[in-house]
Amino acid sequence: MGINRINPPELHQTPGYHHITVVEAGRTAYLAGQCPLNKEGEVVEGGLEAQIDAVVANAMTALAAVDAKPSDVVRSVIYVVSHEQETLAGVWARLTESGLAEAFTTASTLLGVAQLGYRGQLVELDLTAALP
Hints:
This protein is of the alpha+beta class. The protein has one domain: CATH 3.30.1330.40. The chain is 23% helix and 28% strand. The protein is built from two helices and six strands, in the order E-E-E-H-E-H-E-E. Strands 3-6-4-5 form a four-stranded mixed beta sheet, with helices on one face. A two-stranded antiparallel sheet has the order 1-2. Strand 4 (73-81), helix 2 and strand 5 form a beta-alpha-beta unit. The longest helix has 19 residues, at 47-65.
């Protein structure tokens, strides 16, 4: 299986992700949006940074369940309850410095939203992975 990440020279430079990700062959796993929930299903306490860390941990667990790693991710969508560019950039920075960092070198979208599914939830991560 080959995964090729492409940035056409005619498009703007990105802060680490690629405009296009091509998977040559294989199976694909579509992860449900990973929320900042603990095992009891409660939103973790500690604010946005703690929620980002929980989302990363949950995503790593979900990827491992299908024998995938961050480098197998071919698409990510990040939802953040904020309209502030500085907050969105901070979420991107924390994610790209985490153990899941390789997942964000692929086709990625970062969105500021009004609300997510759980009361107090500030971030959610949607991943698609090409399975080895």
